[in-house]
């Protein structure tokens, strides 16, 4: 089942054309890599997919099962694009609690479980303003996955993670794929792409070319 379909999507900013009539399909249960040079438009593409911004031309089609009741926004999407704004004077757990209040779908225990899953201690009293970059990244990952989101759009999910944490998050994403979740991720690390991705798209010269990757695990 195609969850996301890009149909002749074009987007530019102030005369800088990022994509010109690009097409792509993203099926359920696969991990997709989106690659491309700095500034090529990977984050902009993710923002178009999740409805934060609109393409200038073309259409982003989301399967109706993954749209909210009003048919306006995707639902069940976990997103890391720009880092979430957090309250520096609160702990990581308290920040996740605040975000969880929006949907009110999960319990404190669920939040603690997810924190442990990504390698954070839910009981630490440390305020988020004192978190390291890697710890903040784990909070962003926790926020994206904590409500059992079925589609994950992860812009540079491995940024600032140490090697054990990279391994942990890679295993988590592979498990999500087994569970039928769909993951779109960007990474400048070819190893992430080779190890994880069933399919790879590359943004180059305003086009989105489809590259089949080698899956080695
Ligand atoms: N709101 C905006 N207004 C104007 N230009 C923007 C806006 N958002 C993005 N851009 C421009 O669009 C281009 C693509 O940005 P984007 O963040 O998508 O790149 P990227 O491929 O994710 O890069 P990186 O690999 O460095 O993360 C950049 O030139 C950026 O300056």
Automatic annotation (TrEMBL):
<dbReference type="InterPro" id="IPR017871">
    <property type="entry name" value="ABC_transporter-like_CS"/>
</dbReference>
<keyword id="KW-0547">Nucleotide-binding</keyword>
<dbReference type="InterPro" id="IPR003439">
    <property type="entry name" value="ABC_transporter-like_ATP-bd"/>
</dbReference>
<keyword id="KW-0067">ATP-binding</keyword>
<dbReference type="InterPro" id="IPR027417">
    <property type="entry name" value="P-loop_NTPase"/>
</dbReference>
<protein>
    <submittedName>
        <fullName>ABC transporter ATP-binding protein</fullName>
    </submittedName>
</protein>
<dbReference type="Pfam" id="PF00005">
    <property type="entry name" value="ABC_tran"/>
</dbReference>
<feature type="domain" description="ABC transporter">
    <location>
        <begin position="4"/>
        <end position="217"/>
    </location>
</feature>
<dbReference type="GO" id="GO:0005524">
    <property type="term" value="F:ATP binding"/>
</dbReference>
<dbReference type="InterPro" id="IPR003593">
    <property type="entry name" value="AAA+_ATPase"/>
</dbReference>
């Amino acid at each position: 089942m195609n969850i996301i379909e890009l149909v002749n999507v074009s987007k530019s900013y102030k005369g800088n054309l990022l994509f010109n009539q690009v097409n792509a399909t993203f099926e359920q249960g696969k991990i997709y890599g989106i690659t491309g040079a700095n500034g090529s438009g990977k984050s902009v593409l993710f923002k178009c997919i999740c409805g934060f911004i609109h393409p200038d031309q073309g259409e982003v089609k989301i399967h109706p099962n993954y749209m909210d009741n009003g048919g306006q926004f995707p639902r069940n999407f976990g997103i890391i694009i720009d880092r979430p704004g957090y309250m520096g004077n609160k702990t990581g757990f308290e920040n996740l609690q605040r975000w969880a209040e929006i949907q009110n779908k999960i319990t404190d225990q669920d939040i603690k479980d997810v924190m442990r899953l990504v390698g954070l201690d839910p009981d630490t009293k440390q305020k988020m303003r004192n978190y390291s970059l890697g710890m903040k990244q784990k909070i962003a990952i926790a926020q994206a996955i904590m409500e059992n989101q079925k589609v994950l759009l992860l812009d540079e999910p491995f940024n600032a993670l140490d090697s054990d944490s990279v391994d942990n998050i890679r295993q988590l994403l592979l498990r999500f794929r087994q569970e039928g979740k769909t993951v779109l991720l960007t990474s400048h690390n070819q190893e992430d792409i080779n190890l994880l991705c069933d399919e790879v798209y590359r943004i180059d010269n305003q086009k989105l070319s489809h590259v089949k990757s080698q899956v080695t695990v």
